[in-house]
Design goal:
2 domains; 8-stranded mixed β-sheet; 19% strand; single chain; Alpha-Beta Plaits; globular; alpha+beta; Ribosomal Protein S5, domain 2; 4-stranded antiparallel β-sheet
Length: 429
């Protein structure tokens, strides 16, 4: 395995430039090289690595949900893409049973891999994610062992870009590279991440976040069989669509909103249970509509509206992928706008019910719609209730849109992102 000193030399001399350019584009190559080299050098002072440490560089991107808002946990269809923001690590095996992760800006995390049972005190922490991914891979029969890693991330926390999923995919790739012989594919790594988040972290998420980060590019995913989701890459070049994809940070955060988030799959599941099923994907829309009076009485109107959203959004995600596949960006934009309207009216995830005075997402959508003035598309992004919105903005309106949003929300709140073709990966070794 290549030595740490050799990895540093190649980073300094441009030997890793091709790999970095593939991830970050040529325009950002110098910045990417500096960022990666700084991270790698930090490992020496953090962990005392010698020149012979078997180090490698890993990257896992954030993901943007393009279509399928809250459909994955009901085994529905989604459209998502990896973005050009990532969680980056320099890691090496340490010959112990300890996973030590030093993330920039946070205290170092140490996880004893000798005990992989869930720890209640670790819920909602990165330690839970490391332990959970390790537990899943050991269940699969892999000889998981300890490593040291320095980590940095520009995936915005609470942004709907799935920073936790990127972290899980990053850890999964580290384990896979050092201890699994590279045998795990992107789907298996994504599943390990979801397991960690559900069982150890305590968040009842579906699989879209991890799949979007792990697989990479723009992908349509059908979770009808969650054990073997159908993944299809969508061959559309977003750089030629005449629109910029913007993720706008509304300045609100997801802290203390887990209950609101969890209520959505719970209420959809309650509707499915009226028919003896676990998920809405197992119940036909016709059967649901026929039994509407009974379902309203049993589950309440909000649950009914959220089920209606699921059926519409599930179809829409597939139609969005089809529109892109045939190059019909206008139809794609129409569907994105319909998704946003459904999330607002039916899914009801654009503001926290317990805090009606705090509607940053709703206000951002209203202001953004005015700035777009009938062009492009705009919708809530990710889990909802707080966080971010997504907009596809005509290039000729981009500066006006960005300036208008940042007057309201603050400088640097409107992020112009690109779809990254690669998912979680080993960048250099």
């Amino acid at each position: 395995m290549p030595q740490y000193c050799e990895l540093l030399r190649r980073l300094r001399d441009g030997g890793c430039d091709a790999a970095l350019a593939a991830l970050y584009t040529d325009a950002g190559l110098e910045k990417a090289r500096t960022r990666t080299l700084t991270l790698a050098e930090r490992c020496r002072e953090t962990f005392g690595w010698g020149e012979d440490a078997a180090a490698a560089i890993f990257s896992a991107p954030g993901r943007t949900e393009i279509g399928g808002n809250h459909t994955d946990h009901q085994h529905g269809r989604v459209l998502c893409g990896s973005v050009d923001l990532d969680t980056l690590a320099c890691a090496a095996p340490n010959g112990t049973n300890l996973a030590r992760v030093a993330s920039e800006g946070y205290p170092q995390v140490t996880v004893d891999l000798g005990d992989l049972s869930p720890k209640p005190e670790e819920k909602n922490t990165s330690a839970a994610l490391v332990r959970g991914v390790a537990a899943r891979l050991r269940e699969l029969g892999y000889p998981i062992s300890g490593f040291d890693a320095c980590v940095t991330s520009n995936v915005l926390s609470g942004s709907g870009l799935s920073s936790s999923a990127a972290y899980e995919v990053l850890v999964g790739n580290i384990f896979n590279h050092f201890f699994c012989g590279g045998e795990l594919d992107a789907v298996a790594i994504a599943k390990a991440g979801q397991y960690a988040e559900n069982v150890y972290f305590g968040k009842p998420c579906g699989l879209m976040d991890q799949m979007g980060s792990s697989v990479g590019g723009c992908v349509a995913i059908d979770f009808a069989d969650p054990a073997e989701p159908a993944v299809e890459r969508v061959g559309y070049d977003f750089s030629r669509c005449g629109h910029a994809m913007c993720i706008v940070d509304t300045g609100s955060c997801h802290a203390d909103l887990t209950d609101d988030y969890a209520a959505i799959p719970a209420e959809m599941g309650a509707v499915a249970a009226c028919f003896g099923m676990r998920t809405l994907r197992e119940v036909t829309e016709e059967r649901f509509l026929t039994a509407l009076p009974t379902v309203r009485a049993a589950c309440g109107d909000r649950a009914v509206l959220r089920a209606m959203h699921f059926y519409e959004e599930d179809r829409r995600a597939a139609e969005e992928a089809q529109a892109l596949a045939r190059g019909d960006f206008g139809d794609f934009l129409r569907l994105v706008n319909e998704s946003g309207l459904s999330s607002s009216l039916h899914l009801q995830n654009i503001w926290p019910p317990a805090a009606p005075r705090e509607q940053a997402v709703t206000v951002a959508l209203a202001v953004g719609s005015r700035l777009l003035d009938g062009t492009g598309a705009i919708r809530v992004h990710g889990g909802g209730f707080a966080g971010t919105i997504q907009a596809f903005v005509p290039l000729e309106r981009l500066e006006r849109f960005r300036a208008g949003m940042e007057v309201m929300l603050g400088q640097g709140k409107c992020h112009v992102l690109r779809i990254r073709p690669q998912g979680g990966c080993v960048v250099a070794e």
